[in-house]
Amino acid sequence: VLFIPLLAQSSSANTGESKIIICFHKIMNCLHLHPTFNSILLLLVFIFVLKALITLIQEAWTAHITASLTKDLRLQTVSAYSEMKYSYYLNTNIGFLSNIITKEIERAVGAFGDYCNCIVAIIYVSIYTGVSMAISWHASVLAIVSGTLVIYSFKFLGRFARRYSILTSEKNASLQGFLIQMVQYFKYLKATASLNRVRPKLEKEIKLLADYSFKLGLVGGAVKSLKEPFSILLLSSLLFFQVSVMGKPIAEILIIILLFYRLITRFFNFQTSWQKFNANIGGIDTIVKFDREIDN
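^ that's the sequence the OP posted. Answer follows.
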């Protein structure tokens, strides 16, 4: 989209009625820059370099927050361990306590990151919607309606992912409990030749956990696989409406098509992040459950 003013500047075609170019020229005037080919080229380079720096700062800040949040949650959990009642310890599966600090905290932090990505996707959708509204409100309305349909179409996948995320957390705790007991009593199991009796239970837990992981991966794969077909279908609908119904030439609506595609892509980015959030929500559920039980 940003290269369109550059192409227009180097073209002899009449582009005076393009709203994007008019808006771009107003920005150039505010910066006291003359809209020549070289000045537009330098401005584009500056914009992309600035974007790269902002992205780098964002990623560094995200990594810092993730590491700090993981550390703080683990320290709080260790503190909670030291203060929990002995009766609670006796009535709780040791795998549940171990699983919280080794696995579920990371899943909870991952869910937090996915939720933040959802917010970022919503911000991008708002920006692209505002820009496309200024160019063609017909395309904007179609994109918003289409994106809303996409979100509601995958709503059942969210419930599916949430359910198996919680089951995954339960099986993680169960598996860790079996492993801790197996290692703790390994000498006894080895001396009494009882390992073969314990092994089938362990294998059953591993197979169930793998099955849950497969189903969660299937949800993410479904969203990714449907992204391109949905996008092409919606773009085809837009082209049909603008060219066949409204009678506009394709060259005139090129910018609308680009914005429409970016908008739909952001809708799918939101859906992908939301499904990842649901897939990791078992970590949040486990931590909340632990905090509630230990307080009682």
